[in-house]
TrEMBL record:
PANTHER family: UPF0699 TRANSMEMBRANE PROTEIN YDBS (PTHR34473), UPF0699 TRANSMEMBRANE PROTEIN YDBT (PTHR34473:SF2). This is YdbS-like PH domain-containing protein. InterPro entries: YdbS-like_PH (IPR005182). Keywords: Membrane, Transmembrane, Transmembrane helix.
């Protein structure tokens, strides 16, 4: 038996950018802002409350508030510029998801690596009627994929499609 491992030229590789990617629901951005707002209200309140409870030099809460303001500005930029980059797509053998502005991530997961699929909805997501699709892979937990900000119909269709593809591949 002869073993062959032929070279593949770059121009012969398939272009996965040719797939049509879909944006998550626009109302998901509001949900992100609510979550971030609640966290930052708490974070901004801590140094102010600490200043009145325990006498500390005035510069300490000011420095903490300045740092928090900088972090808030960075997060706001990430949300506003990164939201249009939260895209997902379905192909014949895999699912694609991309997100992020400062730290852009593009994940392609083949259906034959997916072991379990679930749809989740948290309390705030329920208010906005949004769902998350979570794909558990055969690799480590870092290989799992979560697509947030889907409407119910899309989440259910994606789950059905992924389950159908994994069943076909397994047979």
């Amino acid at each position: 038996m002869n073993f062959e491992n032929l070279e593949v030229h770059l121009d012969e590789l398939p272009d996965f950018k040719s797939v049509e990617l879909n944006l998550v629901q626009k109302r998901y951005k509001r949900l992100i802002w609510i979550n971030e707002g609640l966290v930052f209200i708490l974070l901004f309140a801590l140094p102010i409350v600490a200043f009145f409870i325990e006498p500390v030099p005035l510069w300490i809460p000011i420095v903490v508030l300045c740092i928090l303001s900088l972090v808030l500005a960075i997060r706001a930029t990430e949300i506003e510029k990164g939201f249009p980059l939260r895209l997902f797509g379905i192909r014949q053998y895999d699912i694609i998801y991309q997100s992020g502005f400062f730290y852009f991530t593009e994940t392609v997961i083949p259906y034959n690596r997916i072991q379990h699929v679930e749809i989740k909805q948290g309390p705030l997501s329920r208010f906005y009627n949004l769902y998350s699709l979570r794909l558990y892979t055969a690799g480590a937990s870092s290989g799992d994929l979560i697509i947030d900000g889907l409407d119910k119909e899309t989440a259910q269709k994606l789950k059905a499609k992924v389950l159908a593809k994994t069943t076909i591949i397994d047979e």
